[in-house]
Amino acid sequence: MSGSGGGRHILSILVENRFGELCRVVGLFSGRGYNIDSLCVAPTADPAFSRIILTTGGSDAIMEQILKQVGKLVRVLEVVDLNEVQHVEREMVLLIVSTRTPAERQEVLNLAGVFRAKVIDISTDAITVETTGSQEKVDALLGLLSPLGIRDLVRTGPVAIPRIGAAREAPGAAASLVVPEAESAV
After folding, report:
1. Do the Cβ atoms of 58 and 67 come closer than 8 Å?
2. For 142-172, how does the pLDDT look when each residue is reduced to its tens digit (9 = 90+)?
3. Contact 91/158 with Cβ under 8 angstroms?
4. What residue ranges define each of the domains in the chain, with the CATH number in brackets?
5. C-alpha to C-alpha distance for 102 and 124, rounded to whole angstroms
6. Which of 52, 107, 120, 162 could hold 166 in an S-S bridge, CB 3.0 to 4.6 Å?
């Protein structure tokens, strides 16, 4: 989206599933002083390819440069700024919350229920909770549990995928850079 300013951008980068590809993408970011806020990489439905979901920030001009530079890497087949297309995103969080009293334990259980989170481990003085949802939902739950004392926390960062049909409706080259197969061959 033009005019989106320096906000958070979620990039979807399709690469050949080969040794060192993640290192090359991350190296491009660090070499140019671009920050990576979160990173997730895994094979796609076709094990010959992996998808990197990366969050970063920057102005429209910086995002345009990032898309072009990543798209020029050999073995990168597609780069999409998911902010430019309708997409679905989710984040998973595992956290351990202190529960020193029965009232605190009940509060954690109630909040887990309201947020459709799962209790996955429990002890006499703590509960481990798993939650999945939008960044806003995750942040809201964390905000409510913080006063109880969050002992530990692990966040995946967002994973995202275009909504069905959204990839075909992408608004041109600013949102997606598809590298033809012939150009990506070594």
Report:
1. no
2. 999 999 999 999 999 999 999 998 755 444 4
3. yes
4. 8-86+163-184 (3.30.70.260), 88-159 (3.30.70.1150)
5. 10
6. 162
